[in-house]
Write a structure and sequence with these properties.
By secondary structure, this protein is an alpha+beta fold. The chain contains 19 helices and 21 strands. The protein is globular and about 80 Å long. The chain starts with a helix and ends with a helix.
Length: 604
Amino acid sequence: MNKKLFTLASTATVAAVALAGCVETKSDVEESKTDTTETAGAKPVIELLGMSSGEQDMNIVRDQLVKNGFDVKLNIQPDYGSYTAQQDAGNFDIAISSWTTVTGNPDYAVRGLFKTGGDYSRTSDETVDQLIDEASTLTGDEAKDKYKELEQALVFDNAYIAPLYISQKFQGIYSKEINPDTVRLPKSRAQAWETISFNDEAKNDTETLVLHQAIASLTSLDPVKGNDGSINTLNTNMNVRLVNLSDTDEVVSKGSLSYNHAMSEDAKEYYFVLRDDINFAKVENKTAVDTGDLVSAEDVVFSLNRAKDQNAVPDHRTYSIHENIESVEIISDITSLQSVKTADGNTVLEALSEDLPAAVAEVVADEADVDNAAGKYQVVKITTSTAFPQVLNYLAHQSGGIVSEAAVTAVNTFDVASYDPNKDVAYGDQATVTEGATYANHLAASGPYILVQKNDYEAQFVKNPAYQVGTENEPKIKKINVRFIADNDSALSALRNGEIHVLQSVPETKVDLVEGDQNLTLKTADSNAVSYLLFNQNGREVSKSVDLRKAVLYSINQSEFISYYQDKKKPAVSTVSPLVDTGLKLEADSAKVKEFLKSYQESK
């Protein structure tokens, strides 16, 4: 923690902060609730929740609010687990929040966050819900206009959030050892491991690539049970998907389970022709082995049906991403591919037939009959309830990862409705891959790597020996360790010392250090990451008063954040801002703050 900044900040009222370990349950944190009761005529008291890693942002917000007539209590938590526990317990008025749209489409930037019942939503507003649904079906200028209406309702009319900034991506590579040309920096999707290579390619089989992650506690290695920074990159590299995102957010089949994909002209049917050079890997004696089990259309149907079913697993975190999928089926009649047209006038069969190992002679329903070299392919058809082209972006998300039906059903033998985490073991539980008494690795990976084991220090991965062998997508490096380092400065020091080889997120204030180090290479890209203040919508004064929320909103001066980060941040309006420029802007306005505060005080 930056003690100097914390001590010298303005004279706001500061709550006592306990930086002990994670708080596990709501009951554990209810005792720590801060008293934000206001006396008549007193300054409004705002409790600001955040993590110690984002203390500078908290300081800037606090100073801006104090300058505009608020008292501020800081609730600083040491890690993500204790932060979310405080949030779940309602111990905040505003919380420093962030969201990265890893699917590259604007619907993902809002649906789970702000729609009633969304995976992470604390908002319930019929107008917002309707605008989200309407915008999801539109393209071009119509979509832009509808997202403008949504931002107006979300930010300016109701002040459910207050935007802070859009981040850029700054990646540091230890190029003394690693070939920087092989390290990708996509705008949206998680880091892709399979392309990375040592400068000396002979080391790919003998040396361990060391990557970095801030969060050591993994939500779940079942791709549908988590959607956060602890597992997104890990699950993306362990489970192949029907499609991928390119580095600039185009939906592509390259590097995925499909050779090609096609959309019907009414945008309600989506077809995927599958490749037959990927088998599931499992772990035996701390090494990866080929199970001989093809990643097949049957596994695709199983995986996507559970992805869209809220009741498929306990604590399902990603079902809303896939709720537009109506059905998933295996095509068994080739003539059905000849009778459906795409938007460009070709048949689906023609669209799927480009650059295959052999021409399509037969589509087969059973994986035992698959033989691409002989022209025998499996084709999966996905139908959506309405025209919804954004479904392709969602299929590229880590939650669309294909899991083994055999492996998952062998582990998940419990009744979902009566699931007890204290006695039931679910597929992907981190305890099963954590070294020690609980270790019992049951994972079956369809992607380029599989997790062997982890501890509090790092997670160890090895190459899937049956992943697209002999193709350009075969993983280059045999062993990868993901080192857990929570502090950004410590992670940067580890990069400069060669203890880690890639730092995916170089702090904006430390870019000069990377650029000036002859052992390092800096890569820069736009991102879809937005930081914002989330207002508590339950049980607080800010929950009840839109005037109070708007007073906070117009206290926020984004230029001060951009200045602190040396012009390496950009203005934001909402989580949609990096994807759709609606033309709206938030301008700090002290006169409006006074107006809304006066209205708030008079209404009490």
